[in-house]
Specification:
The protein is of the alpha/beta class and 259 residues long. It has one domain: P-loop containing nucleotide triphosphate hydrolases (Rossmann fold, 3-Layer(aba) Sandwich). It contains 9 helices and 9 strands. Strands 1, 2, 3, 4, 5, 6, 7, 8 and 9 form a 9-stranded mixed β-sheet that branches. Helix 1 (32-45) crosses helix 9 and helix 3 (107-119) packs parallel to helix 4 (139-147). The longest helix is centred in the middle third of the chain and has 16 residues, at 161-176. Bound molecules: adenosine-5'-diphosphate. Adenosine-5'-diphosphate (ADP) is lined by residues 25, 28-34, 59, 61, 187-188, 223, 225-226, 229-230, 233.
């Protein structure tokens, strides 16, 4: 009889995509999506062809943060056309479900959706594709690293011990998966009162720098806890795009330049 064609082994390249960078965190709510969208916009501002794949299955926030909505079209019924805003080509698992519909898919379905978003989306020619991962060390992280060639991972954490503990596990996982750690970002680092200018460390400060040094990975940036950053993201135009010359945008421009 006919022999089944062997499945391709090992990580593959996504057609047209030069580099894949995963944005990860140990814990939810530390600002991984905020960093992903701002970094994507900063790379675009520097003339890089950039895509953002929102693979945060438990809380896809890129459609809101990048101000895109609607179902992606599939003219040929096989491939999916990504959406585009602020110079960023994007696709989100949130565009494949209703916004307030909880993702209760089983593992294999989830992995199918992830693979579809990687391989069936017409990403076009991209210098870099950022992947906004769900928090933690689960199936999505494993599948991504096993199916696609991931060039590096950026770990986002707040300075708190609990978040750092989980970040450490994330770094350990990527090392086991042979994905290089590009560095850590301390988010919600310093808060400067918009009334009086007083500087406060709501979640502590410097914890990530110390951890990065201990683990031997670079500290890429310390991003302040800042009302304007949240308001911009909630409004669908990240601070890097809505206020490109602001002090808050500088941290993201610096990370983009270093990549
Ligand atoms: P995660 O992707 O890690 O779950 P998000 O990026 O969705 O986290 O951030 C959680 C919430 O905190 C969002 O409302 C976001 O706007 C806000 N946020 C994230 N980073 C900052 C920051 N540096 N300053 C102010 N608000 C922030």
């Amino acid at each position: 009889g006919m022999k089944k064609k062997a499945e391709p082994q090992g990580p593959q390249k996504i057609p047209g995509v030069d580099h894949i960078i995963a944005i990860a965190s140990g814990k939810g709510g530390v600002g991984k999506s905020t960093v992903s969208s701002n970094l994507a916009c900063a790379l675009a501002a520097q003339g890089r062809r950039v895509g953002l794949l929102d693979a945060d299955v438990y809380g896809p926030s890129q459609p809101r943060m990048l101000g895109v909505s609607g179902r992606p079209a599939s003219p040929d019924g096989k491939t999916i056309l990504p959406l585009r805003n602020h110079g960023v080509t994007m696709m989100s698992i949130g565009l494949m479900t209703n916004e307030d519909q909880a993702v209760v898919w089983r593992g294999p379905m989830l992995m199918g959706a992830l693979q579809q978003m990687m391989m069936q989306v017409q990403w076009g020619a991209l210098d870099v594709l950022l992947v906004d991962l769900p928090p933690g060390t689960g199936d999505v992280q494993m599948t991504l690293s096993q199916k696609a060639h991931v060039d590096g991972a950026i770990i986002v954490s707040t300075p708190q011990d609990v978040a750092l503990l989980d970040a450490r596990k994330g770094i350990d996982m990527f090392r086991q998966l042979n994905v290089p750690i590009l560095g850590m970002i301390e988010n919600m680092s310093t808060h400067i009162c918009s009334n009086c200018g007083h500087e406060e460390h709501v979640f502590g400060h410097g914890g990530v720098a110390a951890e990065a040094q201990k683990l031997g990975v670079p500290l890429l940036a310390e991003v302040p806890l800042d009302l304007q950053i949240r308001l911009a993201s909630d409004g669908g135009a990240p601070i890097v795009t809505s206020k490109p010359d602001s002090a808050q945008a500088q941290a993201f421009h610096a990370i983009a330049s270093a990549l």
